[in-house]
What we know:
Strand order of the largest sheet: 1-2-3
Largest sheet: 3 strands, antiparallel
Distance between the termini: 24 Å
Number of strands: 3
Helix content: 25-40%
Shape: elongated
Strand content: 25-35%
Order of helices and strands: EEEHH
Radius of gyration: 15 Å
Amino acid sequence: MRLHFIENGPALLVERDRRVLVIADLHMGIESGLKRHGVHVASRSAARRDRVLA
Length: 54
């Protein structure tokens, strides 16, 4: 099994019989949770998603 840490990202590529991309700690949707509590921040979800899929 080979492990490749993805530079500047919370991700790991695991290669064995197949390749698996493990992504952690993205905080997807955190902006909407904060908004419900009256804290308004610009959403970065689309940018994070695009970075992962690039």
